[in-house]
Structure formats: C-alpha cells, structure tokens
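Notes, p. 3: input format for complexes.
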Amino acid sequence: MMNIAVLISGSGSNLQTLIDACERKEIDAKIVSVYSNKKNVYGLNRAEKHGIKTYHLEDLESLCDTNYDLIVLAGFLKILPKNVVEKYEHKIINIHPSLIPSFCGKGYYGMKVHQAVIDYGVKVTGCTTHFVSEGADEGPIIMQKWLQVEDDDAQSIQKKVLELEHQCLVESVKAFVEGRIEVKDRKVSIHE
Ligand code: GRF
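Output follows (192 residues plus 5-O-phosphono-beta-D-ribofuranosylamine):
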C-alpha cells in the first residue's frame, strides 16, 4: 500500500477530503505524515483526530531524507527546494484554486486568486492539480475542473471552487495510486 505525506499551511479541508477517501478505501493508500510550516493550524487537528503523525516543517530540505510514495501539497504555501523536487520528480501533486496558467504563480494564493478572477471578469474559473516542478504552479497539469462565474463575488466563488478542488484532488491522487498516470514531457495522460 502506498504511503502518502500531505503538506499544509492552513485549515486542511483538502487534507480532510483525502483522509476520508483513504479511510473509505476509495483511495488504496495510507496518509502516514502531515507536515505544516505553520504551528496551530486546524489542519494539524484534523490529522491528529485520525491518528496521523504530524510535524512542524521548518527545514524543507529535511524532506530529502524521506521516502514517501507520494507527497501532496494541500494548501501548502512554501516553494520546495530544488533537490526535494528533483528527488520526488512526478511524485509531488499540488492543488491550485484556478485554471493554470491563469491566476497562478508568485502572490496568487487563497482568496487573492478568487479576487483576481472576479476583478478580471473571466467567465469560467476552476482548479488544477499538477506535478510540482521548481517554479510555483508550473509543473505538468494532471487534471482541471471548471465552473461558470455567475453573479459571484470572491467569497462565493471560493466556496464553489473549493468543492471542485476536493473532487479534483481525490481523483488525481486515486489515479496516481492506481498507476494510471503517464507523463511525457509536459503532457499528462490519465488512463481509465
Ligand atoms: C485551497 O484553496 C487550496 O487550493 C489553496 O489553499 C486552500 C487551502 O484550503 N492552495 P484547505 O487548507 O485545504 O482548506
């Protein structure tokens, strides 16, 4: 069974969705570690309630001494060091709350993303899972889910996108765990 580590920086609703999917065996894997670069965030409580070991992640390089089958960045707001990304090439999945390459990269996180979507006046938005490469939100795209922007503000669109994120992340991690993801250069294929 694959061992997964999840990195968070906040409330951990994406983490919770993965915990629940593993516990109901929708994903045949075990979340063995949760790391947060911030202390006292609710995501750590979520992990502890499910008996998952938690760590305060201060030295990002320390991830080079680990051997997880998959690392998931679920609302993790730091950029991983080059040697960690190289060690875990195509084995780190990030979830971002926009349709990359729009509204992503430096400074685009959390509500800032959704406010930019509203301010720009785009007609569709959504979320993206991708493999993590050296830069922020630049790696090969695994899956995207979209929705129409209606009479929304940043708060209402954030709630709708977060629901899509949960679905997108579970489907992406499940495909990875089941060995159904193939990467050729930047092109990712998910086999049924
Ligand atoms: C999510 O919108 C995620 O895409 C973004 O930060 C938020 C984290 O939410 N990176 P949560 O901590 O998983 O509830």
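The radius of gyration is 16 Å.
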